[in-house]
Specification:
Pnp Oxidase, Chain A, alpha+beta, 37% strand
Length: 153
């Protein structure tokens, strides 16, 4: 496992969600949106998954995974590649669940503020209807790819 720089750590901490990619049993990539709940630059990245569907099945068969995030406005981003470990729901530290709940509350607050400001989004506040996390993914990062075009660095 490699450690994450301050720049990479800060970049991922600011993301509302990331794209997680896994490989299915046919070798086809599968991508899904997930939220980061904890980032430890020396131990890994922790994400909660609300469903035991495709990502879960894929990781059980093949733990290779990547996490990608971009900032369109700054024209920068990163892809983190590594090995994932599944942590069952009953083994998730309660503080991690609390951090996730706080993040959901913050997202609802931001949506309400944008709606008040006239930026109409989803009227039903979908975050309020999310189920409790089914399991947690810990990604041990083995490779970091800077997605910023070379000529812009």
């Amino acid at each position: 496992m490699i450690g994450l720089s301050e720049d990479v750590t800060h970049f991922f901490q600011k993301q509302g969600f990331v794209i997680v990619s896994t490989i299915d049993r046919h070798g086809t990539p599968h991508s899904a949106c997930k939220g980061i709940v904890k980032l430890d630059k020396n131990r890994g990245i922790y994400l909660l998954d609300l469903y035991t569907a495709e990502t879960f099945k894929n990781l059980k068969a093949n733990p290779r995974m990547s996490i990608t995030a971009i900032d369109e406005h700054k024209f920068t981003g990163y892809c983190l590649k590594g090995m994932a470990k599944i942590i069952k729901g009953d083994k998730i530290n309660p503080q991690i669940i609390k951090a996730w709940e706080e993040r959901v509350a913050s997202r609802i607050t931001q949506r309400i503020l944008k709606n008040i400001q006239g930026e109409k989004g989803h009227a039903l506040h979908p975050e309020s209807r999310l189920p409790k996390p089914a399991y947690m993914i810990k990604l041990e990062v083995h490779e970091i790819i800077d997605l910023t075009p070379r000529h812009l660095k």
